[in-house]
Amino acid sequence: MEFNIRRFQGQDAAETSAVIAEALRISNAPDYPPAIIQEMLELYTPGHLLEQAENEHLYILRHGERTVGCGGIAPYMGSEMESILVTIFVLPEYQRTGAGRKIMEALEGDAYFLRAERVVIHSSITARDFYLKLGYRFSDGVGTPDEEGCIRMEKRR
Predict the structure, then answer these.
(1) N or C: which end of the chain has fewer CB within 10 A?
(2) Which pLDDT does position 96 carry in this prediction?
(3) How far is CA 36 from the centre of its chain?
(4) Interstrand relation of 118-123 and 66-75 (parallel, antiparallel or unpaired)
């Protein structure tokens, strides 16, 4: 499957928000209660994505004329030696097609990744195994979800 990836632009906000919402409602729903899914939906409105894009490098993945995924990277807690991966989502029908790997390749080629000694990700339960396959490890050594249902993971460079 042929994908194109590029930096997020303002006009991408509504379509990217819809991609995230669909992924949350379908892919993440088996691992999280409806209240958590609703909280997450409220974090990824078009307006919030526009704000995020001001402080991180946000990318969208396209298949033809359709946005099918997204992902971002930013400095972690203001550090120049650590970065954080954020907002990584793929439409359910594009999962297991190489779409997620394509997003991760872009993020791992980004300047914020390349300058970091450590890159962290607060993984969903749903995506944990995907990140393990890409060399990310549990920050706590065991991969226990925190109170928000996130699994703290990292890759040291």
Answers:
(1) N
(2) 95
(3) 17
(4) unpaired
